[in-house]
Design goal:
67% helix, 7 helices
Length: 195
């Protein structure tokens, strides 16, 4: 038997060589992945600005799209389909928030017909005022779509007559609900979105 300072056994040499090889391989794989990420993220970062929530949502949406794709393609854990669907729901909510889908839905022509005109302002000469008149009202379909919000708005406004105003307020409530749902899903599930 050799003393404590003797040459390492062949298995120890092999183990060290394997570790060196693994570290070198990891370095190159990691470098390649980092360069690929720079290329992928460059258009998003290029268009990013620091003054609007739209840009924050763009970054979050892009990250979630990448995570959903990765989760769907790797299939590394049981229930990956459900987590990917949750991620896709978050992406859809972000898109609806960015587009102000719910606030503009109430103004959709399928729910009403209105006339619009700009008339000269009496208070500010040289300026114009916007005037609209509701010609045909089909808001019952819209109100039926969001019954809880409808009841909340009617109670809050204490007015069932101004149906356009009710519809606009319902749109704001639905918009806020979409934001809350998005961040509730993120809060509850984001830590599960790893391999």
């Amino acid at each position: 038997m050799g003393d404590a300072g003797s040459n390492p056994t062949p298995t120890t040499k092999q183990s060290k060589m394997k570790n060196i090889y693994t570290n070198i391989l990891f370095f190159f794989k990691n470098t390649f992945r980092s360069i690929k990420n720079l290329y992928r993220w460059l258009p998003i970062i290029w268009k990013d600005r620091d003054w609007d929530d739209h840009y924050i949502f763009e970054i979050l949406k892009f990250k979630l799209q990448n995570t959903a794709h990765y989760t769907e393609s790797r299939k590394w854990f049981v229930g990956h389909e459900h987590e990917a669907a949750r991620i896709r729901l978050c992406i859809k909510l972000i898109e609806r928030i960015q587009e102000e889908y719910y606030t503009s839905e109430s103004l959709d022509q399928q729910y009403h017909t209105s006339t619009y005109e700009f008339i000269p302002s009496t208070e500010h000469p040289g300026s114009y005022e916007y005037k609209s008149e509701l010609v045909e009202d089909r808001f019952d379909e819209y109100f039926a779509k969001y019954p809880k919000s409808y009841k909340q708005v009617v109670k809050q406004l204490n007015d069932e007559e101004d149906r356009m105003r009710i519809a606009i307020h319902i749109g704001y409530i639905q918009h806020e609900k979409a934001k809350r749902l998005l961040f509730n899903i993120l809060n509850k599930h984001i830590e599960r979105w790893w391999e």
